[in-house]
Amino acid sequence: MQTIAFYNLKGGVGKTTTAVNVAWHASRWKHRTLLWDLDPQGAASFYLGVDQGEGYKAGTVLKGKQPVGRLKCATRWPNLDAIPADLSMRNADIKLVENGGARNRIKQLIAPLGESYELVILDCPPTLSPVAESIFAAADYLFVPVIPTHLSLRAFDQVREWLDNKKFGHLTVVPFFNMVDRHRDLHVEMLVKRPKSMKGGLKTWIPYSTHVEQMGDHRAPVGEFAPYTPSAQAYRALWFEIAGKLKL
Ligand SMILES: Nc1ncnc2c1ncn2[C@@H]1O[C@H](COP(=O)(O)OP(=O)(O)OP(=O)(O)O)[C@@H](O)[C@H]1O
Ligand SMILES: [Mg+2]
């Protein structure tokens, strides 16, 4: 089983949309895939159509007392399951640190899932909190969407520096450009002459596209409702590039 996370400290850069599209592609290639929505906003759960009913407490599982597998739901796509988020994830940090051992908790919780899944994808909230640290300890790869602007790159540099200091030696950090607008000079410049921070990043970039925004209308990945559009093709290429790095 391989574990990958989509993360950036910066909000609204495309972590969730990319996680959902990549998870869908993985499942179409017959990899048994689980997407764990670790963000109380529950956007990934919404896109996959797996909102939870009342009384559901996804956050409590982070205390480490119950197996996380019992929270999984089937999506309407074969080979793709999800662990939905709900508002109880708001206090996830408190739950995580309550019983000690927070850093390794998510890793321990997902370990038994190896029997059922080849790929676990973590959709992360935009924080540098104990939950984020626990995600970093659990993931093999951290894919970081970066909008080609100076501020986005700066945020990414800050994350990298923080990760270096915290010594997550096993974790491979892989940035990629998202929401690229070819009408903007700065975006084009950064694509042509990649900034140093993007070294080791994916070659594939995702264009700014209205089809991505429409995922909320369809509650589905772009490839399902607009397969021949540039953004759908870009997510497909992104998946292939990511798959090339994984041992699936
Ligand atoms: N390539 C794209 N083109 C156009 N819009 C996009 C693209 N990628 C994401 N978006 C839009 O940007 C918004 C933020 O995307 P998303 O929720 O994936 O970001 P996020 O990093 O997960 O945000 P958060 O930090 O709040 O979790 C959404 O409305 C989404 O539709
Ligand atoms: Mg998100």
Annotated CATH architecture: 3-Layer(aba) Sandwich
Secondary-structure element string: EHEHEEHHEHEHEHHHHH
Helix count from the secondary structure assignment: 11
Q: Whole-Å distance between the termini?
A: 7 Å
Number of strands: 7
- Determine the strand fraction and express it as a percent band: 5-15%
Helix content: 25-40%
Largest sheet: 7 strands, mixed
Associated small molecules? adenosine-5'-triphosphate, magnesium ion
Classified in CATH, the superfamily is P-loop containing nucleotide triphosphate hydrolases
Strand order of the largest sheet: 3-4-2-5-1-6-7
Class by alpha and beta content:
alpha/beta
Number of domains: 1
Rg, Å, rounded: 17 Å
Overall pLDDT metric: 94
Task: Describe the structure in your own words.
- The protein has 248 residues and is of the alpha/beta class.
- It has a single domain (2-245), classed as 3-Layer(aba) Sandwich (Rossmann fold), CATH 3.40.50.300.
- Helices cover 39% and strands 13% of the residues.
- The protein is built from eleven helices and seven strands.
- It has helices at residues 15-28, 43-47, 92-98, 102-110, 130-138, 150-166, 185-192, 210-213, 215-218, 222-225, 230-245, and strands spanning 2-6, 33-37, 73-74, 80-83, 119-123, 141-146, 172-177.
- It has a seven-stranded mixed sheet with strand order 3-4-2-5-1-6-7, sandwiched between helices.
- Helix 1 packs across helix 11.
- The longest helix has 17 residues, at 150-166.
- The protein is globular.
- The protein starts with a strand and ends with a helix.
- The model has no long low-confidence stretch (mean pLDDT 94).
- The site of adenosine-5'-triphosphate (ATP) has 19 residues, from helix 1 and helix 8.
